[in-house]
Design goal:
9-stranded antiparallel sheet; mainly beta; 3 helices; about 375 residues; single chain
């Protein structure tokens, strides 16, 4: 069987070979590219310059180069990212969100907008705006010259309802091969990046508040997952905190660990898959949770969603701004046109009371007195 190559020069003398010919280099002779083979070889060629190349093992002695070429072709032809995520923005997540340091916009684009509130909020920097009609960044931009390149898609963690929802944000940052996964939850007009999901046991004697997030915020830089997360088991008498830490074990969603307390023994998931990170609550193949921490009920100020599916302990990351997404650029323009008021004087002004009688006495008894 032949190696099908396009007509090209091969060999030391540059002799042309037709498409059904092979350039065979015999014992201890080098190819046109200077590569030495033992018995036979092939001339080097561009992998994009052919359509098909049926090959048999007898034609190539050094199979390493054939395998490398095959892997390169597979990498180029196969899709780089395949997962069950949706490009459409969930209704509860769409809109403008803000806190004291940034604004985040989810609109009808495959990339979010992020505006940083820099210099104590006196300058708004459109650090992430990949829109085709985006205005040019000003020369006094406090960050990079060009906008950051980040695309996003959405994977639901729980079904979205009219009052609450939770999703995995799959973010693709320029310069990074792997994707970043940021879990978020929305209810009550607030967006949370630190939240848990309620899981009730079969008999209803306990409720497991399962950790579902591990990222501190939605940023323009690649986020790093937390080293450890906490779940909480709530019974009628107390609350128990369960620590999960990162592990390199393979995720097993069916294996359970046992939490033995005064009220009885309760099964909890041994592994948690949060984003793309696996956490465990027991080492190795163990199933018994040790070093149990009991908390008073008053120390757990839990806020739950109206449908009681999501619970949080931390304040919201951002809140709904209440403005249309198409007015964000005007908001940025108006904010950057503000003038900072002058600084307050170090000594506050007040009513000065001059004692003229003392001044007259100084003139009388001080010969060398001179008024300022």
């Amino acid at each position: 069987m032949e190696i099908l190559l396009p007509e090209k020069k091969c060999g030391k003398r540059g002799k042309k070979t037709d498409i059904l010919s092979r350039c065979v280099i015999l014992n201890n002779r080098k190819s046109a590219g200077g590569r030495k083979y033992r018995d036979t070889g092939i001339c080097r060629f561009n992998v994009f310059s052919y359509i098909q190349f049926p090959v048999v093992a007898a034609d190539i002695v050094n199979m390493k180069h054939f395998v490398q070429t095959f892997l390169v072709l597979g990498f180029l032809l196969c899709p780089l990212n395949v997962f069950c995520a949706d490009a459409d923005i969930p209704p509860l997540l769409a809109g403008v969100w803000q806190n004291s340091s940034r604004m985040i916009v989810f609109d009808n684009r495959d990339s979010p907008q992020i505006i940083l509130k820099l210099f104590y909020g006196w300058y708004y920097d459109r650090i992430l705006d990949m829109s085709a009609d985006a205005p040019a960044r000003p020369r006094n931009a406090a960050t990079s010259r060009n906008s950051e390149q980040v695309s996003v898609s959405f994977e639901p963690l729980i079904p979205e309802t009219e009052t609450s929802g939770a999703w995995n944000l799959h973010l693709y940052y320029s310069g990074f091969k792997e994707e970043a996964v940021i879990p978020v939850a929305v209810f009550g007009g607030n967006l949370y990046v630190d939240f848990m999901l309620n899981r009730s046991d079969a008999d209803g004697t306990a409720t497991l508040m399962e950790a579902a997030s591990n990222i501190s915020g939605i940023t323009v830089s690649f986020p790093q997952p937390a080293e450890e997360v906490y779940s909480f088991l709530r019974t009628d008498n107390a609350v128990y905190r369960i620590r999960y830490w990162q592990t390199d074990m393979e995720y097993d969603g069916e294996t359970e660990a046992v939490l033995s307390v005064e009220e009885g023994s309760f099964p909890v998931p041994k592994h948690l898959l949060i984003g793309s990170t696996v956490y465990t609550c027991v080492p190795g193949r163990g199933t018994v949770i040790r070093n149990i921490e009991r908390l008073p009920e008053s120390e757990l100020p839990v806020v739950s969603s109206p449908d009681n599916r999501i619970c949080v302990l931390a304040p919201p990351y951002v809140t709904a701004a209440g403005i249309p997404a198409d007015t964000v650029r005007q908001v940025v323009t108006d904010a950057n046109s503000r003038q900072r008021p002058p600084r307050e004087p170090l000594i506050p002004p007040g009513d000065l009371d001059f004692r003229y009688d003392v001044i007259s006495e100084l003139r009388k008894y001080t010969p060398n007195f001179s008024e300022p």
